[in-house]
Structure formats: C-alpha cells, structure tokens
What does this fold into?
Amino acid sequence: DGGITQSPKYLFRKEGQNVTLSCEQNLNHDAMYWYRQDPGQGLRLIYYSQIVNDFQKGDIAEGYSVSREKKESFPLTVTSAQKNPTAFYLCASSYHRDRGYNEQFFGPGTRLTVL
Amino acid sequence: AQSVAQPEDQVNVAEGNPLTVKCTYSVSGNPYLFWYVQYPNRGLQFLLKYITGDNLVKGSYGFEAEFNKSQTSFHLKKPSALVSDSALYFCALYNFNKFYFGSGTKLNVKP
It folds into this structure.
C-alpha cells in the first residue's frame, strides 16, 4: 500500500535530550513537511523540503533540525533547545507545484511528551 | 500576506440537518484552497480542493465547498449531517510552496 508512515506513535523524552521522529513515504512525492499541532492552534509549519538535500525553515523552526538525504525520508530532530516540545507532530508529503496544485498526504502523527 | 481564518471554534448540528463550516482567506494572487478532516489522534485526511473552474467543488463523503472570490470565502457544506461526521475540520491555502492552515473547527453532530 502506498502511504506515509511516522514512528514512533508515542515518544517520551527527558528534558535535555534530543529525539528524532521518523517520517517515510512511498508515494514518490517530491515535497515533505513537518507540522506541530497544539490544542486550539491548528498546524504550524516547522520545516519543509521541496527536493532532496534541500530544506527551508517554516514558521517555528527554532529548536528543531531536519535532513533530506533520500526522497522517501524526512526525519525531524527535536533538540534540547526546543523549550516546549510536548505536542503532536505531523509529517506530510505532496507532489511539487510543477506537477500541479496537489493536496498533502499526512502521516498518522507522533505524540511527543517531555517528562 | 497570506492567511486562513476559521471564525468558529465549534459548530453544533443535529443529524440529518445541513451543515456549514466557514473559512475565509487572504492571499495575493490566485487562491488554491483545501479542506481536511482530522479524527482524534490521527493525521489529516483530504476532503476536497479548489484550484480553478466551478465555484462549487464536490469532495469525499458527500462534502462540498463553495468558493466565493468576492467574499474571499471557501465554506464547507454537507446537505445532511451524520454523527460520524463529528471531527475537527481544517481549511488550508497553498501559496509559494507552503500550506497555510486555519485554526480548525470542531464539528459536533448530535443524534
């Protein structure tokens, strides 16, 4: 089945630790995105990538880092510099704009809790 | 600047009645608009989109949306609500390689 997967589903982190959230897609999509969702605030863009080995900061990139070494994968690292990392993290992918204005496909999400 | 607004945090409707979830947008250039639905602790699912053409767009699960350029709105509608439609709904705008999401509207459909 084609789709986008995120792991783990739940993640607990101690303060001061870095953690990496996985996002993989087999949809042959060019673009990938990371969002953070907090109650009542909708989705906020952390980072996005249009092509391999290139990515841009979104609206709330501080305290996060990403890599895009493969088209299928876009891992997100939540660093100790992120002051309030407890949230629901969503990964999404889509075709590049050059292929038309296409919708995003979302993964099931990772819920990160800082202990 | 581009933005999306969903003026209602929550919409309550009785099963069988029509429903409307409101969305307004602001963008320089052509608007590319989307609606998504989210069930608890799940990712978002695509419902429908407006790129160009007819102002009434039909989507999944019987939903439709009406694009109104003069009012800069893209309201989501369904003629007859189901209890299973209860969820969180997001309107989104695509511009310059990014998607801008509204804050979401919780739809409650009561039996």
In short: Chain B touches chain A through 21 residues (CB under 8 Å).
